[in-house]
Design brief:
The structure holds 2 protein chains of 2 kinds.
Chain A (H helix, E strand, L loop, with lengths): L5 H4 L4 H16 L12 H26 L8 H26 L5 H9 L16 H22 L5 H29 L3 H20 L11 H6 L7 H18 L10 E3 L4 E3 L5 H11 L3 H14 L1 H12 L10
Antiparallel strand pairs in A: 1-2
Helix pairs in contact in A: 3-4, 3-12, 4-7, 5-12, 6-7, 6-8, 6-10
Chain B lengths: L11 H26 L8 H29 L3 H6 L10 H4 L6 H22 L5 H29 L3 H19 L8 H6 L6 H18 L21 H11 L11
Classes of the chains: A mainly alpha, B mainly alpha.
């Protein structure tokens, strides 16, 4: 690869750059992990910052549509489980902002970029959660789709991101079980409950099918990401894996999928489906989703409301460090 | 003083008094947990988002444990207790019903005052003549220990930092204090519980609580409100509008079909 700007060469001559790149790529090909202090091409750093930042934003924005339902959870068990789940998502944001910080930007900068509408978050969190069944569908199917993506990314070449993702996947596995159990309960419950679940699935199917990103035919990022083992599977491969694992389970619950083109090709052993509306996807992730403004505004409000606390923390740390309280 | 090894050893008057106590404790914890969980996703820093969610789960888990004990005494189902009662049947103090109003300073101060009240009460209940309650108190106090460390360190930190933080905390203290005293509103079960050795008199617990919170508030540079009249009423079901709204929110999905499994 030939770097075409001075910035990408990072002050090196072309020959030096090429030599370092060769060592870097050889390490990746041997399956070694790249650590924060290691040399890396500027493009690798920028791609990772972009990915991890978007991922962290998605966790913190994803806490909102689900968190909204904690006050309405209809049993003590569900209330506890949902609160624990959303807490995990916020914890994931914390882990991921930390992983991104190893590459340069601070958490504060990343959060400010989110609330200024300058950085993205996952398409699925741009939509509203309208009923209790939405929480079940998100916890089951969106967390399942996320596990497919994140367990693949966890094997990627950047050490801090991979380690954060391993912890995240471990927790997501609980969410997914909790979500599946909620779906089983609603699917096998009263007619009102079953219909509520079907209606939620109908609304979420489109966004879920877009979750893994644009089709391989059009995705602009996939090439480099795959070569540097940031990403080990293409978007379409992940989508196919999701369909293979979950469409049969959805049918088992007596639910239908709102895609007339969905059918299993026994010879090719894969699902055929109608391509989602990629124009909608682009519009949504660029800030035109039905809840985009609301999510960003809520994050902005929380960030601004909390400013005095962060200022007080900084002042307390600078002037009068608080001794650890006695553990009585 | 005789002890009650199991719940069935209580006579009818003691049993009703124990249910009164457990309902107060369970309702306080459920509503406090609910209020804490309203911060999930919205707290000033991610670490405190996680901390408030964690305390929310602890408090709601404690409510579940108290309701389970009521279930063993009366047969009432814990979910029905939480979701099937209106505000007048609730026995929580107005202190926990107070809305968060996006005021994290108020909420962290309230949590500190609440956790101290819990610690005082649970420490006393560890010696309750009602053995299952004493066992539960020991278990719960282990978790409250961490809540109290969290609340105390925040009160000290905020009280001694910027003028803005100090003023916010002072305003929160004036607002919270009369309601906090309402945590110790005596009920008709007060004497029975004390005589049977199940739980000390509320006025005794209030004195212990005040002597525990005052030094910490002083170290935070805060003025302690004087000659304050407690806001009572919650323990007899005279509940503020805020609880009515909270319960409407909390019970909205359950009420779609209370007989369904959710």
């Amino acid at each position: 690869m030939v770097a075409d700007t001075k910035k990408e060469l990072g002050g090196l001559s072309q020959a030096e750059y090429d030599e370092r790149l060769e060592v870097f790529e050889a390490r990746i090909n041997r399956g070694e992990k790249i650590e924060p202090a290691d040399w890396m091409p500027e493009e690798y750093r920028q791609q990772l910052i972009r990915l991890i930042h978007v991922h962290a934003n998605s966790e913190i924005c994803g806490a909102l549509p689900e968190g909204k339902w904690i006050p309405h959870a209809p049993s003590l068990k569900r209330k506890l489980a949902l609160c624990a789940k959303v807490q995990d998502e916020v914890g994931h944001a914390q882990l991921l902002y930390r992983a991104a910080e190893t590459l340069g930007p601070s958490r504060e900068e990343m959060v400010e970029s989110l609330i200024a509408g300058k950085s993205k978050f996952s398409n699925v969190f741009h939509y509203p959660t309208k009923t209790w069944a939405d929480v079940a569908v998100i916890a089951w199917l969106i967390d399942a789709a996320a596990i497919i993506n994140q367990s693949m990314m966890a094997e990627g070449s950047y050490g801090p991101y991979g380690r954060a993702l391993k912890r995240i996947c471990y927790e997501e596995a609980f969410h997914f079980k909790h979500g599946y159990e909620m779906c089983i309960t609603l699917a096998g419950g009263t007619k009102v409950q079953h219909d509520m679940l079907q209606e939620a699935l109908d609304r979420w199917w489109g966004p879920i099918m877009m979750f893994h990103g644009p089709s391989d035919k059009t995705s602009t990022h996939t090439g480099t990401l795959v070569r540097w083992k940031i990403k080990l599977k293409t978007n379409d491969e992940q989508r196919q894996q999701f369909l293979k694992q979950f469409v049969p389970k959805i049918f088992d619950l007596g639910l239908t999928v709102p895609d007339k083109g969905l059918r299993f090709d026994k010879e090719a052993k894969e699902w055929h489906y109608t391509e989602p509306d990629w124009e909608e996807f682009k519009r949504v992730v660029r800030g035109g989703g039905p809840m985009t403004k609301d999510r960003v505004e809520t994050r902005r409000m929380a960030h601004e409301d909390g400013l005095w606390v962060r200022q007080a923390l900084a002042a307390a740390a600078a002037n009068r460090p608080v001794p650890m309280p006695a553990g009585k | 003083m005789p002890t009650f090894e199991t719940l069935i050893e209580l006579n009818e008057i003691e049993r009703d008094a124990a249910i009164d106590l457990l309902t107060r404790l369970g309702d306080d914890d459920l509503i406090m947990g609910h209020r804490n969980s309203e911060w999930t996703g919205l707290a000033p820093i991610l670490e405190e988002d996680i901390a408030f969610s964690s305390m929310a789960q602890d408090e709601m888990g404690h409510a579940q444990a108290y309701y389970q004990m009521i279930h063993e005494l009366s047969g009432d189902d814990p979910d029905t207790l939480a979701f099937g009662r209106g505000p007048r049947a609730y026995r929580c103090s107005s202190f926990v019903s107070l809305p968060n109003e996006r005021d994290w300073g108020f909420c962290v101060l309230r949590q500190f005052l609440y956790d101290m009240a819990e610690t005082v009460r649970l420490t006393a209940l560890e010696h309750s003549s009602l053995v299952p309650l004493a066992q539960l108190a020991r278990k719960l106090r282990g978790e409250e220990k961490y809540h109290l460390m969290h609340g105390r360190s925040w009160v000290l930190r905020l009280g001694n930092s910027t003028d803005d933080a100090h003023q916010r905390l002072q305003a929160a203290l004036y607002k919270a204090y009369p309601h906090a005293l309402g945590l110790f509103e005596p009920t008709s079960a007060d004497v029975t519980l004390a005589q049977a050795g199940i739980c000390p008199r509320e006025e005794d617990l209030m004195r212990q609580w005040e002597s525990a919170v005052v030094p910490v508030l002083g170290d935070a540079g805060l003025e302690i409100p004087e000659d304050v009249q407690p806001v009572n009423g919650g323990r007899v079901g005279r509940q503020p509008e805020a609880l009515k709204e909270l319960l409407e929110n909390m019970q909205v999905v359950y009420n779609i079909d209370p007989s369904a499994k959710w």
